[in-house]
């Protein structure tokens, strides 16, 4: 089945990317609410909150694949959600032209670079780097 | 007895007040929820860029990460974190309101009520978060 075409209307072809953007903002938004509220509760509300965060704290979390995937999912969903939201503002407040292209290019580049960087950091993280003082490291690191 | 018998022409006692540019939208709940959604969204986006970079320092050295994360534990930044969490909580709850308004006819009709529910939930959430966070920031 094809969608109804009114007489004289050019046939629309391909995917409606703006529609999928609209759907993405809502679907990712709901997931991000859960992921970010969980992130804030674990990092800011439990125990001594922000005062407890250090290398050992992060190392302890990322020793568990559960928190690695939690944080990587948050990274991808949030950066794409944020960059697409900023694209909406660029569309609203600039006219089509070079400036608009540069701004959208910068948003795309920032999101792409940080997604790659963040994903590599989470999955190549070394919780017990050689030569570091033991009191800075997670408690499970072997004493040297 | 009817005060205005049929056939009597009356003019309204007061002409309806017409504010310049007054519409159902402008200056009302719908506009302010939109404005706040944009402002909080932009603020959260720029924090996110910084936050990914500071977290990436765990890949440099424990000392580098601890030095930067230590600045998040100062009183000034502690207050900034209250503002950040306030922005996130508003954006989250108002985002749910937007989804409901888009998908559910009842919510479209009652979007103003939903805006005040968002504000109420925001106040409750911040009352839960702020004291606990500030005690952590200022007392350890």
TrEMBL record, chain B:
<feature type="region of interest" description="Disordered">
    <location>
        <begin position="1"/>
        <end position="21"/>
    </location>
</feature>
<dbReference type="InterPro" id="IPR014314">
    <property type="entry name" value="Succ_DH_cytb556"/>
</dbReference>
<feature type="transmembrane region" description="Helical">
    <location>
        <begin position="35"/>
        <end position="53"/>
    </location>
</feature>
<keyword id="KW-0472">Membrane</keyword>
<keyword id="KW-0349">Heme</keyword>
<keyword id="KW-0479">Metal-binding</keyword>
<protein>
    <submittedName>
        <fullName>Succinate dehydrogenase, cytochrome b556 subunit</fullName>
    </submittedName>
</protein>
<keyword id="KW-1133">Transmembrane helix</keyword>
<feature type="transmembrane region" description="Helical">
    <location>
        <begin position="113"/>
        <end position="130"/>
    </location>
</feature>
<keyword id="KW-0812">Transmembrane</keyword>
<keyword id="KW-0408">Iron</keyword>
<dbReference type="InterPro" id="IPR034804">
    <property type="entry name" value="SQR/QFR_C/D"/>
</dbReference>
<feature type="transmembrane region" description="Helical">
    <location>
        <begin position="82"/>
        <end position="106"/>
    </location>
</feature>
<dbReference type="Pfam" id="PF01127">
    <property type="entry name" value="Sdh_cyt"/>
</dbReference>
<dbReference type="InterPro" id="IPR039023">
    <property type="entry name" value="SdhC_prok"/>
</dbReference>
<comment type="similarity">
    <text>Belongs to the cytochrome b560 family.</text>
</comment>
<dbReference type="InterPro" id="IPR000701">
    <property type="entry name" value="SuccDH_FuR_B_TM-su"/>
</dbReference>
């Amino acid at each position: 089945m094809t969608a109804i075409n009114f007489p004289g209307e050019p046939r629309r072809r391909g995917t409606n990317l703006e529609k999928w953007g609209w759907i993405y903002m809502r679907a990712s938004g709901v997931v991000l609410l859960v992921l970010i509220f969980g992130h804030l509760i674990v990092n800011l509300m439990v125990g001594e909150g922000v005062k407890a965060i250090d290398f050992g704290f992060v190392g302890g979390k990322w020793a568990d694949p559960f928190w690695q995937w939690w944080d990587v999912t948050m990274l991808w969903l949030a950066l794409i959600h944020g960059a697409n939201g900023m694209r909406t503002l660029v569309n609203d407040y600039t006219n089509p032209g070079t400036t608009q292209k540069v701004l959208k290019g910068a948003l795309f580049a920032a999101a792409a670079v940080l997604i790659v960087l963040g994903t590599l950091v989470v999955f190549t993280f070394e919780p017990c780097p050689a030569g570091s003082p033991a009191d800075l490291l997670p408690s499970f690191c072997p004493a040297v | 007895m009817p005060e205005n018998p049929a056939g009597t022409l009356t003019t309204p006692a007061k002409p309806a007040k017409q504010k310049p540019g007054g519409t159902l939208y402008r200056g009302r709940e719908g506009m302010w929820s939109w404005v706040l959604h944009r402002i909080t969204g932009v603020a959260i986006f720029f924090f996110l860029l910084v936050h990914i970079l500071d977290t990436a320092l765990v890949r440099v050295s424990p000392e580098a990460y601890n030095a930067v994360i230590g600045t998040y534990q100062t009183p000034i930044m502690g207050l900034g974190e209250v503002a950040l969490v306030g922005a996130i909580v508003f954006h989250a709850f108002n985002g749910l309101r937007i989804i409901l308004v888009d998908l559910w006819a009842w919510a479209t009709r009652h979007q103003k009520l939903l805006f005040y529910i968002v504000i109420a939930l925001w106040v409750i959430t911040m009352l839960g978060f702020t004291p606990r966070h500030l005690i952590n920031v200022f007392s350890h």
